[in-house]
What does this fold into?
Amino acid sequence: VSSTYTERINFIQKSLGKGQVSRDGNDISISCPHCKEHLKKKLAINLENWKFHCWVCDAKGNSLVPLLRKFSSNENLAYYRAHFLNDKIFAADLEFVEEQAVKLPDGFLPIVLANLKHPDVKAAMRYLCARNITEHEMWKFKIGITVSDEKFARRIIFPSLNADYEENYFVGRSIDKNARIRYMNAINDKTSIIFNDYAIDWDKKIYLTEGIFDFIALKENGTCMLGSSLSESSLLFKKLVANESDIVLCLDNDMVKKTARTADLLTSYGCKVEVMDTSSAKDIAEMTNEQLDIAKETIKEWSPKTSFLYKISTIKSGSMF
Ligand SMILES: [Zn+2]
It folds into this structure.
């Protein structure tokens, strides 16, 4: 038994009550504070990865944060965060996740500075206007275009910058309706970057959308996930959990299952999660201002009950609220 192992056991017993280490030494079982089966020790905590599960009431989680927050002191919670949680979250050590350098397409130019007489630039401008992107947003998101890199011709380029203002990704959306490939993005792994991290205020509520167009239309603090799921191994997930962020999930309505899975996962790590009902349109980018206002007003906190309703609504079809 290593010293950190003993430290873990001591910490659990000090903060959540006396426990019993399993014969194989992988788990410690304590009395579950949820169902208060005081005599029986039915809540098992994995000493390696901090997952817990109560065999009586089925309470479970991926870290002790939800338990400590409810049933222990702020001091113990802070100690857990400082001494154990980061070990878990940053097991792969963020500093060793080397970000590959990303090169924007040759001839990349902010569209607001491009030659508007060029037919591709003109068509791109028309496309952006049709998608309700304002000139202010073109500046803000550094939206660009190239007329010299043939591979990326007739594409809107959305560059992404990391927290140090270095390019870490880009999204290239074709402006042509019948394009064979709608999106041609940077080739590096999107799970190892956070889209436009430099612009995120991590102390505020974080809104997450699937795509960049949804994110622009939403007009909130946050980022896009570049897809409909959030992997536990992604940099975005780790940073959300490390910050214990308050999160609003704004995924497309056809992604109810994935929304439920993502919300449950983030909640199990101690994040506060809310969910936006996006059923009034195909996606956020296509909502009218009125639909968007209503969607924002009806943002609901995620709870075991909403989780349950989401899971039923995937059996029935239609809106779940
Ligand atoms: Zn229980």
User: Anything to note?
Assistant: The pocket of zinc ion is lined by residues 32, 34-35, 43, 54, 56-57, 59 (CB under 6 Å). DSSP finds ten helices and 14 strands in the chain.
